[in-house]
Amino acid sequence: MATAAAAPERLLRLKHVLERVPLSRATIYRKMDAGEFPKARKLGYATVWRESDVVKFIESLPE
How far apart are CA 23 and CA 27, in angstroms? Predict the structure, then answer.
């Protein structure tokens, strides 16, 4: 029986992160430095975030 391969992790650029979270660019980077926002990763010249990390952050926000 074949096992289904897991879907690859989706990566988000800053533009798409800003569309999802109620924070400014500066606040995102400030919170990253403070350990309060998921760390970005470098992919060549691009800076990306794992979508699952961003979703977890959004779910942790108070309503």
Answer: 6
